[in-house]
Amino acid sequence: MSMVLFAAVVRVRDGLPLSASTDYEHNKGVxxxxxxxxVLSKKLSQLPDRCTLQAVxxxxxxxxxxxxxxxxxxxxxxxxxxxxxxxxxxxxxxxxSYDTKRINAAVRPYSFIEFDNxxxxxxxxxxxxxxxxxxxxxxxxxxxxxxxxxHQLTMLDLGTANGSANLPxxxxxxxxxxxxxxxxxxxxxxxxxxxLLCGALNLIRAFHAMENIFQDNEDTLNNVVAFFLGTGxxxxxxxxxxxxxxxxxxxxxxMFGLICLCNLYVHELRNLWQILFHVTTAAFTTLQxxxxxxxxxxxxxNV
Length: 303
Description:
Blueprint (H helix, E strand, L loop, with lengths): L3 E8 L5 E4 L7 H14 L8 E5 L3 E8 L2 E8 L4 H18 L2 H6 L10 H11 L11 H10 L3 E3 L1 H4 L27 H26 L7 H24 L5 H18 L6 H20 L12
Helix pairs in contact: 2-4, 2-5, 7-8, 7-10, 8-9, 8-10, 9-10
């Protein structure tokens, strides 16, 4: 008989178990699958957000979102569409019941063991398919699985062989979805355009200063360098605003500081309002870069 045998909720960053089924299954195959599940829970941060591991007579499915992973063990012939519907229901209920701050602050295993009440009720429903016909839309889930099938794992991905979980883990070579930024807002677009304008103004002044490089004293060369640096800083701020890269906030703040220094150096060539415009634009772009954070997965992303 195909059925859901075990389910667990873990924290992705360190594999800390937050909740799990409290029923006791003495089947040797299930116990072995639980060992695989425990190893897998430590590797969730390295894996795609939806995966399936096919073991002997049993399958392990999982989804992860917003820093929490939801795993289950079922018979090998249990329909994938029902398995991922089951995990999706756990996910929706868990993120509704517990906020991110409390999840991140948890230090003890099974800090949310009371969630097992919902796991048990949901297991009973999914182990009695007749009760599901009016409560979930299997057609939508089936379509989603066809469009975005789960990543198939092997024992090598898990770092196991011959049922043992003590072997060294080879590096995972699967490709996880690329991280994206939140959609750009109207203030973000305005900040980008203003930064481009400031960069263009700096570039024009740099070329103008170069024309006089042989007529003025040696300070003119320094002015040219300052204008070119200002141009590069403005363009790099635009890049940081629209793209996802490491240390975005720090880099943007450093570019803001560089723009301030460049304007301070050429203050004799600009009036107060021009300097204020360049500095304010740089500060505004830095703020928009800080506000545009990496995109979190929607609650139904793993459906």
